[in-house]
Amino acid sequence: MIPRELIEDIRNRSDIVQVISEYVPLKKRGRSYLGLCPFHSEKTASFTVSQEKQLFHCFGCGEGGNVFSFLMKIEGISFAEAAAELGEKLGVKVSQPLASSGVSTSEKERLYSTMLLAARFFRAAFEAEAGRPARDYLAGRGVNEAAAKTFGLGYAPHSWDSLFKHLIGRGVAPAVIERAGLVLARENQDGYYDRFRHRLIFPVCDLRGRVIAFSGRALDDSEPKYLNSPETPVYQKGETLFGLNLAREAVKKEKTAVLVEGNLDTVSVHQGGRLNVTAPLGTALTAAQCKLLGRFADTLVLAFDADAAGEAAAERSAEIIRSQGLKARIAVWTGAKDPDELIKKQGAGAFDQAVAQALPYLEFKLRRVLARFRLDEIEGRSQALRETARVLGGEPDDFARQEYARSVAARLKVEPETVLTEVKRQSYYDRGNEKDLRRVTEKPGSRRAAAEKQLLALAAAVPGIATELKRELTVQDFTGPEAGRIAAVLFNGALDESAELSHQVLARLTDEADQRYLTGALLGEQLGNPAELLRDCIAVIKNDGARRRIEALKQELKEAEQRRDGPKIRELIAALKNEIY
Ligand SMILES: [Zn+2]
Prior knowledge:
Layout: H1 4-13, H2 16-21, E1 27-29, E2 32-35, E3 47-50, E4 55-58, E5 64-65, H3 67-75, H4 79-90, H5 103-127, H6 132-140, H7 145-150, E6 154-156, H8 162-169, H9 174-179, E7 183-185, E8 192-194, E9 199-205, E10 211-218, E11 226-228, E12 241-242, H10 244-254, E13 256-260, H11 263-271, E14 277-280, H12 287-294, E15 299-303, H13 308-323, E16 327-330, H14 339-346, H15 348-356, E17 359-360, H16 361-371, H17 378-393, H18 398-412, H19 416-441, H20 447-461, H21 465-472, H22 481-492, H23 501-508, H24 512-523, H25 530-563, H26 566-580
Parallel strand pairs: 13-14, 13-15, 15-16
Antiparallel strand pairs: 1-2, 2-3, 3-4, 4-5, 6-9, 7-8, 9-10, 10-11, 12-14, 16-17
Helix pairs in contact: 1-4, 3-4, 14-15, 16-17, 17-18, 17-19, 18-19, 20-21, 20-22, 20-23, 20-24, 20-25, 22-24, 25-26
Zinc ion (ZN) binds next to loops.
């Protein structure tokens, strides 16, 4: 365990605004900082960071917490790792407790260290005499030694169990090697064999540079040509991008990431001097991958293969990118099938130019749609009008929609108004649906729930309020599930009122829902001064409590009257009078 004082010290000395700014552009708005939430996609900023309170909260999706929770969520790391990362920045040494935070962390740590051993084994094999086929293949593809080293490329030997034996020799348990996806159990249950054999190995790393998977390219006619690690507790295919650990800084600097299809494309482009390049791992681009890139970039340039399949993939990917609130551009070129070939034939400059001149998504999409129809015929133009209007209807920006409508109109030889009218006609139905949806999801918050929240925020922020609250209310007066648990901590938590109260309370809340609730309350709007607020909120809760008791008594009275239970009726009437006067 990391000592509590050390944690407090790191938190006190870190500035949450500075830390979050490295991931999310923030603007000062009043007493807080606002930005677009990195945890859900949004177009208007509801992600709030308070320097004064050293907390963040998203009023859109409810995510919230302190500087540690932010790093844990955005980097997908444990509390200990977040503390170590922050500590490192401040020059505070935090020893990594390898197995302190439960079984799952130590299980992951075992997998990380096994993958690292495997990566070193593949790398050594690559450099040894046996690795010649891999080296020859790379040389044939024009990859130089420096690039091979940067990406840690390796070679899986032509053998059934050389990796397995190597890892066993290093004391790794067979079950761990299997869970890491490095070996497969033999069918007769008699031992294991290596998954990767006689392949060029591309290590796949997470953002912290830890090896989490491998992608192996066959060096003979074996199928499949590319073999990837299965998903494991440390590797989720749809949430990882090849080379992003190396591209990250350049992506951040340029606010742009270039996406290519293959691992070798990534290496070639990187070798050509463009560092902000990464690749989805042999799958279609996912929303999670876009979200990950969205932490560093606002624009993604797709440089997929220049064939029908590549174009279709680019179109699908661009839609996913836009659904995550990012801009999508598509690089086009001629005379080469993929970036690797383009660079080989025409030089790195040709690829740079293709990236610089990449088409905005809408332009690319409209060109593709228009190319499908015969624009020299009326029927063709009419179909093209409907199809392009559908594309334009999906564009949220008015200006862009109108400008593109103008250019489509010119190509279809009609008035811009004709195109815009068609867009309006088509979007009418969609918008109707959206409104209905909003009505269903917007629930009016009850006054009592708001009062409970407000009181907990006050008590967690201002020393002394909790004590005052205890005189007036009990834990049971907080009826919301989160409110009840937070009240229990505030009332019975033995808090040290001199230290920062809100952070102490947050640290004691084990349920994530409770943490979100409290950060939302703490960063929410405060109406009026604390003393008035306290009085008003207590009154709301007490009145509501009385109302509920009266309702219950009336119900009981009705039942007693049906039973003609005289003594009970008299007792209930007395109780009712007592509540009312
Ligand atoms: Zn959010």
